[in-house]
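Here is one such protein, fold included:

. . .
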Amino acid sequence: MLASSVQRSKPTPYPSKARSALIRRTVVGVLVLVALTLITISFRSPTTGALHDIQGAGSSALRPFQVAATRVAQPFRDAYDYFHSLANAKAENEKLRQQNRDLRISVISADAKLAKVPDYAKLLHLEQGRTFPGGYRAVNASVITFPSGAFTHSVAIAAGSSSGIRTNDPVLDGSGLVGIVSNVFPDTAIVTLISDPDTFVAARDLHTHVRGILGTGAGGTLILDHVSKTAVVRQGDVIVTDGTRNARYPDLYPYGIPIGRVTSVGATDTASYLQVQVQPYANLGSLDAVGVLVPTTKRR
């Protein structure tokens, strides 16, 4: 049995690569030829005929599948349209929000500027009035900082040396004296208010011509000091800057700037002078705009 030989069947040969490629090319060529033939016949044939009947029958047969495909695709198309519209709505909503923010900022800015209009109008009226001191020009500026506490008596303004402002320039608003420039920068300046304990102004009673020194008394109130007990000062009298008494020693404040009105006059046996309290015309705690008096002639 071991020596017996078993004859095996001859293996089936695999088709060659060249033959497979030839078959594929032949099939593609036939399909292209058939397609061209059908297209030519379709264009050249009349609107009625066997080919058009076949096309119509094919379309009718495929119509249910087209309708089904449309119905199946419709929810996805609706979902796409919904999310696309939602995205557009969000973008439009954000655009409108930004426009609303811009408009709000513009309105606030306009309101802020409008709030200062009365103060600038008063300054303009004062500058054009007969009581405006000669030899000066006004540099009007916005107040950009305010007193930060009970012991702070200065403000910052939005004008400085580039506008011609120098130290010791008098400062007023549309109602009366505010203070004096104590520090200057190119585009800003610091104004020390008349309520500062170290500030003193030569002043006089406009009605009785009594002179004194305006300063800060007990409790932070303004007082007209160094007024003799024999002098006549009445409640309601107007106090103004006294101006220069000696040409060799000119005063920092020109004559006639309104300071305030006398609110009370008193005297004690132990005091050497009258106790004259003055209410300033300028609202020193709520300044929006001020005018700096800049000399038109160069200082010596």
Observations:
- The two ends are 144 Å apart (CA to CA).
- DSSP finds two helices and twelve strands in the chain.
- The chain has a mean pLDDT of 79.
- The chain has two domains: 19-129, 136-295.
